[in-house]
Structures are given as C-alpha cells and as structure tokens.
Amino acid sequence: MDADTQTLPLGTALKRGLLLRCPLCGDGRLFRRFISMYERCSNCGFKFERGPGYFLGSTYINYGVTALLTTVSYVVLHFGLRWHNEILLPGLAAFCLIFPLVFFRYARSMWLSVDCCVDRVEAQEHSTSGGGKPRESKDKNNSD
C-alpha cells in the first residue's frame, strides 16, 4: 500500500459507524442535527459524501435491518409466543414506519464506514487541516 491511500479494518469501521464518528479518525462527528450531516470531518477533513447519490446505498442497509427485525419479531411472537395477527400487525406496521427514521443516521454512518473498508480512501479526499469547527456546506449560489 502506498502513502496516498488508506484502508480501515472492518472492526474499527463498525465501531466508529455505531458511534456516528468519522470512519478515518474516529473523532469528528458526522451529523450536525438529526438528519443534517457535516460536509467534512472537523478533525481530519475527510469528505463524507464521496460522490452524487453516494448515500443511496444506506437505504439498503436501513431496509435490510428493518425487514430482518420485523421478520424475526413476527416469527418469535407469532409462532413462539402464539400472539395473534390482530395484535401483531398494527405494532409491526408502526415499527416499520418509525424504526427507519430512528435508524437513518446509523445506516448512513455504517454505509460510510464499511465503504471506507472496501474502497481505499485517496489522500485528496481528506486534508490534515481539518481543525476547528466542522466546515459547513457551501450554497451553490455562494461563490468565493
């Protein structure tokens, strides 16, 4: 491996993803507010959105986790504890609507972290001058 690229161990990436931290340095926060992300890491300057539509893949993670939890819950509660569908279905339907909203940030963070393991991070994708406040996204109408 040359000095211009970095790879990340999977265990480290998953831990940082669950903590909603920068996958490269583990220090910078990913989210400014509930769904609003920083453009770059405040510590290392890593650019989080690596291309147009980059986080579309996180919807697959969100959908997969939601479907898995719903299926396991249904099987355990219906076949294991003998709950009737009239009781189960409204609760599971509500879960399917609420859980993806709560899990949104984690799905994005996990997508970014795992992608950094699979795809080498080029040196130009981050800078070492990331100190201070996280950089805000520049508006398209602003020109500096």
Tally of DSSP helical segments: 3
Strand order within the widest beta sheet? 1-2
Please mark out the parts with pLDDT under 50 across 5 or more consecutive residues, or reply none: 128-144
Shape descriptor reads: elongated
Give descriptors for this structure.
3 helices, mainly alpha, two-stranded antiparallel ribbon, 144 residues
Topology:
Blueprint: E1 5-6, H1 10-18, H2 56-80, H3 85-118, E2 121-122
Antiparallel strand pairs: 1-2
Helix pairs in contact: 1-3, 2-3
Describe this entry's structure for a reader.
- It is a single chain.
- This protein is about 45% helix and about 5% strand.
- The protein has about 140 residues and is an all-alpha fold.
- It has one domain (about 5-125).
- A two-stranded antiparallel sheet has the order 1-2.
- The longest helix has about 35 residues, at about 85-120.
- It is elongated and about 55 Å long.
- Mean pLDDT is about 85; it is low at about 130-144.
Structure in a nutshell:
With 144 residues, the protein is an all-alpha fold. 47% of the residues lie in helices and 3% in strands.
